[in-house]
Each structure stands twice: as structure tokens, then as C-alpha cells.
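F.,

This is the one I mentioned.
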């Protein structure tokens, strides 16, 4: 300002975390490896994302972990001196930081040195840690009570009420998917690591008609559907494809009205536009032709135009029937039911 008071021209207040509640979870010192530390934080991420209280982004800092590391000789009960590693922004970094610290502690102690209690910074680029600050002992922290904050008393009935209101937790959901829908461990892990994927799947299974099985829902959701979404930079939380439209699509597939190949094209258009599958099927020239009489005429025309190929098939070269099939599929713009076409071609040639 004009009066030259220091700080008057700019704010000295840091509102970095204003209005953002911070929950700190401290584990007991019972984690025994870098892999276990990583698995613990990954499991924690699944819990907070399923609860809807955190988006779980480590790289954006909405979920972060500091790792306390100490080592001790085998058989010794007392823990060694610990160091705390800060600035960890991915699960991979967490594992690497812990591995590095364990090795550093080991080298210092085996070299006759002593570990100093300190806070260290992890540098992702070099995969190493450096001193941030030496830790004062707890009595140097100058803890004192905050008179405006009264003790928080939580009753057992309040705890039970919260427990009753919790959504299905990931570990329970994982077990249910494996028991009820025969998910492999890997499939169950993919699902519970992705909250929108779980929500979409659960909604689809709950609303599915009799002709659509959970395994079909899973197959398409882990296959073409998710591949199409990824190509567009979307996920099951942002897709234009409603659960109802997705189920109609699977129903139409199950009825044989469209082939698997046509299904892939229709689903891609659904992801792009959000249009219902029946409209898209009509726009693309209609459903699969599975009427024998309608196909017989096309088959006869193709056979008449390719008598040399017909002779080859008669001579036992059944592979030549693939060429004739291709011609029929082209003529019907890919809408003929393939196994029916093959049968009609072979039957028609046998009668000639």
C-alpha cells in the first residue's frame, strides 16, 4: 500500500486447504514389506472411493501417504529408530521409497552407523530420499490444548448407526462378485478398483431381463464397451449409454436379431451418440437376416455366378465355401446369419 507497510500489497494468508476436511489415518507399525505397504494404501483407496468421500487421486494430492520406516535385527522386539518419508505421489513411488529407505537403513547400520530420526523427501526422478528436517522429540513439539475445541464424545449407538448406513464395502463386493457371478480374482479386482464400473454393473444386473445373464453383461463391459469408452476418454460414470439401452442391446443380441459383429458396430455408435440400439439397427439397414427363404434366393444367385467354386466344393475343398460365404455376406451387407448361410451353401451344393 501507499503507506509502505510490509505485506500490505499482497496477502500473506495461504488458503491452500481452506474448506477441505482432512482425515488422517495412522496404521500400527505392523507392515513388513514395501509390497504390503503399497497393498494397504491401495485397499484404503478402494474404501474411500466406494464410500464416496474421496476421488483417490494420489497425483493430485487428494489422497497421500507418508511412510515411516525402521529396521531391527531378527529376534529383537524393540523397533529401530524410524524415518518418515514425505512427497510420495503414486503407489509405485510408495513402494520404491520404502525399498530405498530399508536399503539405506541396512547400509548405515551394517556400516557401524546410527539412524537419526528425521523426515526425508522422496525424489521420484532419482528414486532416492534426502533429509528434509531432523525430527524434534515429541516433548519439543510444544503440544498444548485448544480451548475452543471441546472433547468429541461418540456413543456406541452413533457408531452402529453409521455402520448401518455404509454402502457395500469393496472387500465384501469382491467376494460377492466371485461367489454370485463366478468372477475370477483378476476380474473382481478390476471391478472394485473402479467405482463407476461397479455401479453400472450392479444397476445392469439388477434390471436385467431373463435373457441377459450377468456373464454377458460382464463380458461386454470388460471388452468392447470399455475399449470404446477409453478411445473417447470416457468411463462408466460419464458414458452416454444408459443402463436401459445397454440391456436392450444385450437382449437384441441374445435373440439372434443381430450378429456379434453387427453388435460391435452398434455398440460403438451407442457410445458415440447415446442413441437407443433399435434405432441404430434400423438406420444400419435392419436386423440380421435369419429367414431361410429370404437367404436361399441370394445363395442360389451367388452359386450360379461361381460355378467353378461350386465344383471345387463338390471335389471336397470345403474351404472354398468360405469364398461363397463372403460373397453372400457382401450381398446382404453383412446382415445374413453366418452359420445359416454356410449350411444353406453346403446343402444347396449337395443337391446340385
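My design for it:
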Amino acid at each position: 500500500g501507499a503507506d509502505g507497510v510490509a505485506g500490505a500489497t499482497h496477502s500473506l494468508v495461504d488458503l491452500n486447504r481452506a474448506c477441505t476436511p482432512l482425515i488422517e489415518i495412522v496404521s500400527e507399525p505392523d507392515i513388513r514389506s514395501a509390497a504390503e505397504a503399497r497393498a494397504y494404501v491401495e485397499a484404503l483407496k478402494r474404501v474411500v472411493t466406494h464410500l464416496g468421500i474421496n476421488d483417490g487421486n494420489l497425483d493430485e494430492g487428494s489422497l497421500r501417504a507418508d511412510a515411516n520406516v525402521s529396521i531391527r535385527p531378527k529376534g529383537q522386539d524393540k523397533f529401530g529408530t524410524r524415518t518418515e518419508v514425505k512427497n510420495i505421489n503414486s503407489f509405485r513411488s510408495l513402494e520404491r521409497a520404502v525399498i530405498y529407505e530399508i536399503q539405506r537403513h541396512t547400509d548405515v547400520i551394517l556400516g557401524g552407523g546410527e539412524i537419526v530420526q528425521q523426515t526425508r523427501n522422496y525424489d521420484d526422478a532419482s528414486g532416492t530420499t534426502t533429509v528434509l528436517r531432523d525430527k524434534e522429540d515429541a516433548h519439543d513439539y510444544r503440544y498444548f490444548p485448544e480451548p475452543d475445541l471441546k472433547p468429541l464424545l461418540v456413543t456406541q449407538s452413533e457408531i452402529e448407526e453409521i455402520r448401518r448406513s455404509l454402502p457395500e464395502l469393496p472387500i465384501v463386493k469382491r467376494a460377492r462378485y466371485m461367489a454370485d457371478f463366478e468372477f475370477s480374482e483378476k476380474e473382481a479386482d478390476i471391478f472394485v478398483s473402479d467405482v463407476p464400473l461397479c455401479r453400472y454393473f450392479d444397476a445392469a444386473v439388477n434390471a436385467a431381463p431373463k435373457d441377459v445373464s450377468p456373464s454377458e453383461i460382464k463380458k461386454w463391459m470388460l471388452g468392447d464397451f470399455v475399449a470404446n469408452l477409453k478411445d473417447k476418454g470416457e468411463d462408466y460414470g460419464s458414458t452416454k449409454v444408459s443402463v436401459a439401452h445397454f440391456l436392450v442391446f444385450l437382449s437384441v443380441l441374445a435373440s439372434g436379431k443381430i450378429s456379434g459383429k453387427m453388435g460391435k458396430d452398434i455398440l460403438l455408435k451407442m457410445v458415440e451418440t447415446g442413441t437407443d440400439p433399435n434405432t441404430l439397427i434400423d438406420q444400419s439397414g435392419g436386423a440380421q437376416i435369419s429367414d431361410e427363404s429370404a437367404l436361399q434366393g441370394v445363395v442360389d444367385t451367388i452359386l450360379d455366378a461361381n460355378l467353378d467354386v461350386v465344383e471345387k466344393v463338390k471335389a471336397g475343398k470345403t474351404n472354398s465355401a468360405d469364398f461363397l460365404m463372403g460373397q453372400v455376406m457382401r450381398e446382404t451387407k453383412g446382415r445374413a446369419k453366418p452359420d445359416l448361410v454356410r449350411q444353406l451353401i453346403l446343402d444347396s451344393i449337395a443337391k446340385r
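The chain has a mean pLDDT of 88.

Talk soon.
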